[in-house]
Write a structure and sequence with these properties.
Layout (H helix, E strand, L loop, with lengths): L3 E8 L7 H4 L6 H11 L4 E5 H11 L6 H8 L2 E4 L10 E4 L3 H10 L5 E4 L5 H4 L7 E7 L20 E10 L2 E8 L1
Parallel strand pairs: 1-5, 1-6, 2-3, 2-5, 3-4
Antiparallel strand pairs: 6-8, 7-8
Length: 179
């Protein structure tokens, strides 16, 4: 079974909402090289509809950059009850989201990656479908916004820290595995 990794950005005060508003001043060559290297561990993306629509609009037309070219090449699966059509090498997941994600995980391959903590996580986590959290901590206080693991029962999420990696500009990547 291929693992599902949740890769996300979080501020020191636990905010995960709208990282496009606060993370970019810290994003530099170290982070870009790390993100590009990590894409080699995956052979597909999983997105919720909102994240997919934001990323497809912002990143879909970018070409000639190793990171965005790698993102573009990977197949994308989008969990949504309202999305009828997709672009950007994406396929909508129809029907029961839990069953659809389980079926994706049962397919042969390297692994699945999901960017960003979203509403979809409230479905995936209680069903033990996220195997790894790759959390990049940014050295700032955002103050307000949706928090990491907000609305998640801690009993549904036994985790163990398995790796730490400093990324420059004060960022640290923490990897937690489900126990």
């Amino acid at each position: 079974m291929r693992p599902l990794t949740e890769a996300l950005f979080v501020s020191l005060d636990g905010v995960v909402e709208a990282p496009e508003r606060w993370a970019m001043p810290f994003w530099g060559p170290d982070q870009r090289a790390n993100a590009t290297e990590q894409l080699a561990s995956y052979d597909a993306f999983l997105f919720g509809r909102v994240t997919y629509e934001k990323f497809a609009a912002a990143w879909g037309a970018i070409t000639g950059d190793p990171y965005y070219d790698a993102v573009k090449r990977l197949p994308k699966f989008v969990a949504s009850t309202t999305l009828a059509t997709t672009t950007w090498n994406a396929t909508p997941l129809t029907g029961d989201t839990v069953a659809a994600v389980r079926a994706l995980k049962e397919q042969p391959g390297k692994g699945l990656v999901k960017y960003g903590f979203s509403t979809l996580d409230r479905t995936l986590i209680p069903h033990q479908l996220v195997d790894r959290f790759q959390i990049t901590v940014f050295p700032l206080i955002v103050g307000s916004g949706r928090r990491l693991f907000e609305g998640i029962d801690p009993a549904d999420l036994p985790l163990a820290l398995t790796a730490t990696k400093p990324l420059g500009n004060g960022l640290v990547q923490l990897t937690y595995e489900r126990q």
